[in-house]
């Protein structure tokens, strides 16, 4: 999957973070089955929905309590661990968490 998702044939400038790539206007421009993070068809990942919901809930909880900031140790160019089963940075992704001040 990693090789396919980082192939310039399907994704121009694949190292650039570009969420617009997957916007409603651009979805029709994607080559079918060029982006398949959970597989496709009858044998796709059964945990896709559960994983997405868990991730969203975790992010909501963290972002409601904290502000995230780049750490001085956060790499500008993220390099991925090629031997990892899941997509992971080779050195981690250090961030600073600053407690949010909320008023009610």
Strand portion: 5-15%
Poorly predicted runs are none
Helix and strand composition category = alpha+beta
Largest sheet features: 2 strands, antiparallel
What is the alpha-carbon Rg in Å?
17 Å
SSE pattern, N- to C-terminal: HHHEE
Mean pLDDT: 84
- Number of discrete helical segments: 3
Structure description:
There is one protein chain. This protein has 104 residues and is of the alpha+beta class. Strands 1-2 form a two-stranded antiparallel sheet. The longest helix has 18 residues. The model has no long low-confidence stretch (mean pLDDT 84).
List the helices and strands and how they pair.
Layout: H1 2-5, H2 24-27, H3 48-65, E1 66-70, E2 95-99
Antiparallel strand pairs: 1-2
From the structure above, extract its key features.
single chain; 3 helices; 104 residues; alpha+beta; monooxygenase activity
Question: In brief, what are we looking at here?
Answer:
With 104 residues, this protein is of the alpha+beta class. It has helices at 2-5, 24-27, 48-65, and strands at residues 66-70, 95-99. The chain is globular, with a radius of gyration of 17 Å.
